[in-house]
Design a protein that fits this description.
The chain is α+β, with helices and mostly antiparallel strands. The chain is built from 11 helices and 11 strands. Helices cover about 50% and strands about 15% of the residues.
């Protein structure tokens, strides 16, 4: 079966087709990268709260995000614990402190989590054996996913080799006792886990009468929205918000993706990649049409309909989309792997991103083809004579 005319046009000039494919591949890889960063912003936004076993939380009305939660009076947590259906109530303290790299002295922001090591709410953060290591205020666990610029002792990850090392954290000296797994985000280069007393040690201005967030674990048969409403009615205070876990996760995601520049930058980057790819494909197709103007005029002269001639150009556009997408996915996978390794962020090639980029690439090439059709219509059979 002979190849369609549009594909034959592409194969006729292999160098031009190779350049066009490279341009589409670049646009595809760039769109993948921007969408990956956008997805990472959504994922890391909930890094702190997602693994914790709570159903309702108390936050300040001045709350910004997890690492800048402001403070809530701790007695509000005790009041909320009196509501029927509440099984456990625990404070969570979160703050940003400066970690000094022991090798070069450079300071980097890290997120410090102060928790009760014996609470079921925080059990998913570390094992019982790891929590048992926090026997003194200056003992910490370091997130193994923390970025390498903080200076691990061996390799590019914190691990057993770092146990026992002393590090400057803010104005204090702390000792690494072990590791846990949380994952880095955009707010800090890594995370540190310590006890309630350890948080007070690292933040001397912190008062025991306040907390960053209050977490409530409900009884198995309790309805979280209903209990949240009851707590809200009980507190009835202007300085506290009562949210379910789903609501705080949604609030965190919305804050990082919609209210900060991250979402705008990544969406704009994807749009720019779309425009760049459209321009590249249009230049290739319009140049091809101009070079074959006489041939297109001949087709019209011998009776071929405009719809057939238009289809020839659109075939080329679709072929370029396919040729550019396949290597683009490979390049994106490589970029994702390198980024995840170096930046310690959870970026991965998902089915959703693949489908979105394939759709955008097809639309990009079709738009270019439709614009190039204007030159096809200028191919007048009368110009042959």
């Amino acid at each position: 079966m002979p190849a369609p005319l549009g594909l034959k046009n592409l194969m006729h000039n292999g160098r031009r087709t190779l350049v066009a494919t490279a341009g589409v591949t670049f646009a595809v890889a760039l769109m993948f990268l921007q969408l990956g960063f956008l997805q990472t912003a959504e994922t890391t936004a909930t890094t702190v709260y997602k693994p914790l076993k709570f159903d309702v939380c108390l936050i300040s009305k001045d709350y910004h995000f997890a690492a800048d939660a402001r403070s809530v009076p701790r007695f509000r947590l005790y009041e909320a614990a009196s509501v029927p259906g509440v099984q456990e109530a625990q404070p969570l303290n979160v703050g940003i402190n400066q970690w000094r790299n022991p090798h070069n002295g450079e300071a980097s922001p890290v997120m410090v989590l102060g928790v009760d090591p014996t609470s079921e709410i925080f059990a998913s953060l570390a094992s019982a054996e790891e929590f048992a290591l926090l026997t003194a205020p200056h003992y910490i666990l370091i997130d193994s996913q923390t970025r390498p610029e903080l200076g691990p002792a061996a390799g590019d990850r914190f691990g057993p080799a770092d146990a026992g090392r002393e590090i400057e954290l803010g104005i204090r000296t702390v000792r690494i006792r072990g590791t846990f797994v949380l994952g880095a985000g955009f707010a800090a280069a890594g995370a540190v886990l310590t006890s309630d007393s350890g948080f007070g040690y690292l933040f001397p201005g912190h008062s025991d009468d306040s907390m960053s967030v209050g977490l409530l674990r409900l009884e198995p048969d309790a309805d979280a929205p209903r209990v949240a409403r009851q707590i809200n009615a009980l507190l009835d205070d202007e300085d506290v918000l009562v949210l379910t876990k789903e609501q705080i996760l949604e609030r965190e995601s919305d804050r990082w993706v919609e209210q900060t520049s991250y979402g705008i930058i990544f969406r704009l980057g994807c749009f720019i990649a779309f425009l760049v790819g459209t321009g590249i494909v249009y230049q290739i197709l319009s140049s091809d049409v101009a070079n074959h103007r006489a041939e297109y005029a001949t087709l019209r002269a011998i009776g071929y309909r405009n719809s057939y001639i238009n289809l020839v150009v659109l075939q080329q556009a679709i072929a370029l989309a396919v040729l550019g997408t396949i290597p683009g996915i490979g390049v994106a996978f490589l970029l994702y792997t390198l980024t995840a390794r170096q930046a310690r962020i959870p970026i991965s090639l998902t089915t959703t991103n693949v489908l979105v980029v394939v759709g955008l690439t097809l639309a990009m090439c079709l738009v270019s083809g439709l614009i190039a059709l204007r030159k096809v219509r200028q191919a007048d059979p009368a110009d042959l004579f």
